[in-house]
Structure to design on (229 residues):
């Protein structure tokens, strides 16, 4: 069970989300405005903040911090609620620190998946060595080279970083936002579809070796690298 704050001026949307999260067993608090709610709960920040993306445009997402007294609630994950008309604001929200987003009207099944993904803490696993081998793929980080079945493949710098991240964190599912944050950085202004483009590029490189199947799409969640089908 997680402590979740649902903040949305749209009472109908807020009630739908809050009730579904309660059904899933979470401890849910509802508020119309995220800042006012956090000011009342500074001693124990929520595990997850679910709020309308319009508030995030003004506040800066992950660091819904300070609030006039220097308290940092950056440990809370942030899931943005966005109407289709507000989709253009998503890249900016990504740069400001959201963990994921969901489009209104909220689909209950998708909400459960997105919330579970946000609550599962993510971090890049550092490699203690300069090399990493997964299946027939070998990464030589010192020389920034990747070979597949002893054949060197050519990757652009961002493709290399994406492959390295997925290899280091194999079998974990990452949303587009998580990949953007981890590989491109939170200050990047690229769109979410940039991830799809780079995933397709990596698959095309791995396909001649029969390894493209390892780079898997998890419907409704994102991508993972796994040797398991």
């Amino acid at each position: 069970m997680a402590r979740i704050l649902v903040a949305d001026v749209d009472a109908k949307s807020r009630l739908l989300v809050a009730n579904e999260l309660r059904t899933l067993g979470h401890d849910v608090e509802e508020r119309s405005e995220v800042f006012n709610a956090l000011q009342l709960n500074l001693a124990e920040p929520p595990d997850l903040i679910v709020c309308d993306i319009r508030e995030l445009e003004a506040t800066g997402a992950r660091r819904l911090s300070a609030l006039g007294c220097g308290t940092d609630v950056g440990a809370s994950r942030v899931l943005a609620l966005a109407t289709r008309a507000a989709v253009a604001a998503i890249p900016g929200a990504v740069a400001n620190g959201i963990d994921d987003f969901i489009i209104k009207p909220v689909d209950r099944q998708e909400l459960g998946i997105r919330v579970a993904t946000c609550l599962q803490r993510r971090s890049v696993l550092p490699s203690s060595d300069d090399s990493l081998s997964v299946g027939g793929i070998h990464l030589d980080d010192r020389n920034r080279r990747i070979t597949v079945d002893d054949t060197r493949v050519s990757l652009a710098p961002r493709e290399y970083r994406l492959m390295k991240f997925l290899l280091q964190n194999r079998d974990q599912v990452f949303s587009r936002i998580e990949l953007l944050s981890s590989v491109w950085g939170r200050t990047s202004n690229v769109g979410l579809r940039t991830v799809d483009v780079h995933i397709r590029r990596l698959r095309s490189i791995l396909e001649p070796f029969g390894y493209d199947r390892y780079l898997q799409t998890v419907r409704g969640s994102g991508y993972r690298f796994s040797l398991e089908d």
Summary: Residues 61-74 have pLDDT under 50 and may be disordered. The first strand starts at residue 3 and ends at 7. The CA atoms of residues 91 and 135 lie 34 Å apart. The domain at 3-119 is CATH 3.40.50.2300 (Rossmann fold).
